[in-house]
Amino acid sequence: MTSLLKYIVKNDAMKTDPKEIYGWRVYLLACSACFGAMSFGWDSGVIGGVINLESFIYAYGLGSKDDVATANLQGNIVSVLQAGCFAGALAAFPLTDAYGRKYMLMLAACFTLVGVAMQAAASGHLEPMYIGRFISGLGVGASSVINPIYVTENAPRAIRGLLTGLYQLFIVTGGMIAFWGNYAVSVHLTGPKQYIVPLAVQGLPALLLFFLMAICNESPRYLARKDRWEEAKAVLTRIRNLAPNHPYLVDEFQEIADQLEHERRLIGDASFWSLQREMWTIPTNRKRAILSITLMICQQMTGTNAINTYAPQIFKNLGITGTSNSLLSTGVYGIVKVVACSIFLLFMADSLGRRRSLLVSSVGQAFCMFYIGLYVRISPPVDNQPVPGAGYFALVCIFVFAAFFQFGWGPACWILVSEIPAARLRPMNVALGAATQWLFNFVVARAVPNMLATVGEHGYGTYLIFGSFCVCMFFFVWFFIPETKGVSLEQMDKLFGMPDEQKMEDGPEGGKRGASKIEIEEHSNRSDNRSV
After folding, report:
1. Mean local confidence (pLDDT), 184-188
2. How many Cα atoms occupy the beta-carbon half-sphere of 223 within 13 Å?
3. HEC-encoded secondary structure of 294-333
4. Residue 102 to residue 221: CA distance in whole angstroms
5. How far is CA 178 from the centre of its chain?
6. 8 Å CB contact between 166 and 415
7. What does the H/E/C string look like for 67-131?
8. Rounded CA gap, 225 and 496, in Å?
């Protein structure tokens, strides 16, 4: 595994860090936590197909797809999940700081399962469908905050981008499975079972999240923040697969201790308002918070979740006829996303870097959106007529758009938002970014059905609007986003500029470890930490 990583990951940390730290535990921890991300991808894929099934349309009283009232109802059904996600993301920050990453991920899984059960049992009644999707959203939104934090705090620095980016890979994998599940039920099932089965099966990722997190350890950096130093040492020793006195382990643990000491000297004990002051009054922290918010706004303004959720309807607008055919095209779209995301994580996240990936992604997505919009405006598809060559190229652009999104704006945003904050501010910063993402996800999910119905024939203006956002995003990244590949979490302050107050407190010999030096000593593992 180490030789393969050195071949595909090109950064200084990979060359110098010991090979033992890339053992199976870090991959299992990351994959276990990322089932929370799969819940969102699965839900988005399921609901986008289900609302186009004739059985669902009949059961829930939906009308013609071109009707604005129907577009409003579809938007409400889809977007209420994002409203729950927004609330869950905001609630996750204080809860994960108080009760830990591990147990809050398990609680989030329980909320998701309850919501899924209510959706499957709604049986044509909108009220339980709305409530169930909101409750599921609470779980999914909380997971979206805790998951990147947990993975980032456990990952070795050389492959932090790869492991944190698994969040996006699990989203698109969940979406792909849901797309093909929708196609399967449209072909093989009839009646209410056609939509009940996919709505029920989407609870599987949450079930796996609950049981896998039960056997995983707590984050060592969280334990250190809670002054549970012995447990933090034990966990870090186990997941790095090194002897307790190994120089790499000693240095990493000392960096954690020094970072926490600096932050506590700067602001004192953490409370909600002291953390708010620390985030918004210290220029380097304020810059990182604003960058996190802007990155998440940009991610949604690419239009990707509009296509993820309403892909079957969009394929029909581009000339693909028949529910099964549009769902089949959506399934292929899901495969493209998974393959592209895998390529990014293996060959680009920790080699090409975050910044250049975002720049390339912006250009590719803008081209695709502009071409689709101009095609639909100039030569729109005609009912009962074959799709012209330009139309097939527009369909290809949907797939190319998905690939470019996975090359940058999909995984890179989550990586950056979870790695650039100071340790004390990481939960709040990720919660802020995730809540922003869900807020604008809600806006997009709620607006797109109406945009496709009203912004020009076949909704051509929708694509031009998203293409214009992609152009703006290129310049935002060019001027404001630094490269973070291979930089340890504890060195992010230096990358963004150390706060003046901290420099003064450290004095001319800032950074001395003197009396605060914490030695890592061999000790027995406690029974409550005998986890993976």
Report:
1. 84
2. 19
3. HHHHHHHHCCHHHHHHHHHHHHHHCCCCCHHHHHHHHHHH
4. 12
5. 17
6. no
7. CHHHHHHHHHHHHHHHHHHHHHHHHHHHHHHHHCHHHHHHHHHHHHHHHHHHHHCCCCCHHHHHH
8. 22
Contact 309, 449 (CB under 8 A): no
Q: Which residues contact 378 (CB under 8 A, 6 or more apart)?
A: none
What is the largest distance, in Å, between two alpha-carbon atoms of the chain?
80
Nearest Cα residue to 473 out of 413, 417, 426: 413
Q: What is the mean pLDDT of residues 75-94?
A: 85
Nearest Cα residue to 288 out of 482, 509, 61 = 482
Are 269 and 424 a contacting pair, CB within 8 Å?
no
Q: How far apart (Å, rounded) are the C-alpha atoms in residues 179 and 312?
A: 9
The secondary structure of 402-461 as a DSSP string is HHHHHTTTTHHHHHHHHHSS-TTTHHHHHHHHHHHHHHHHHHHHHHHHHHHHHSSGGGHH
Indicate if the pLDDT at residue 388 is higher than 90.
no
Residue 456's Cβ-count burial label (10 Å; 0-12, 13-18, 19+) is: middle
| Distance set, CA 29 to CA 158, 415, 482 (Å) | 16, 16, 28
Tokens of 101: 């990453």
Closest to 429 measured CA to CA, from 324, 527, 327, 282? 282
What letter does residue 491 receive in the DSSP assignment?
G
107: left (phi over 0), alpha (psi -120 to 50) or beta: alpha
pLDDT band at residue 11 using 50, 70 and 90 as cut-offs: low
Residue (of 119, 123, 150) closest to 136 by Cα position = 119
**Number of CB atoms found within 10 A of residue 72's CB:** 14
Name the residue with tokens 């909600």: 272
Q: How far apart are CA 109 and CA 385, in angstroms?
A: 47
CA distance 140 to 209: 11
| Averaged pLDDT for residues 307-320 | 68
Work out the mean pLDDT of the chain and round it to a whole number.
80
Buried b (16+ CB within 10 A) or exposed e, 205-241: bbebbbebbeebbbbbbbbbbeebbebbbbbbbbbbb
Cβ atoms 436, 293 nearer than 8 A: yes
- Tell me, what amino acid is at 213? M
Given a cut of 60, whether residue 503 has pLDDT beyond it is no
Pair of tokens at residue 525: 């593992």
Amino acid type, 95: L
In this model, does residue 398 exceed pLDDT 70?
Answer: yes
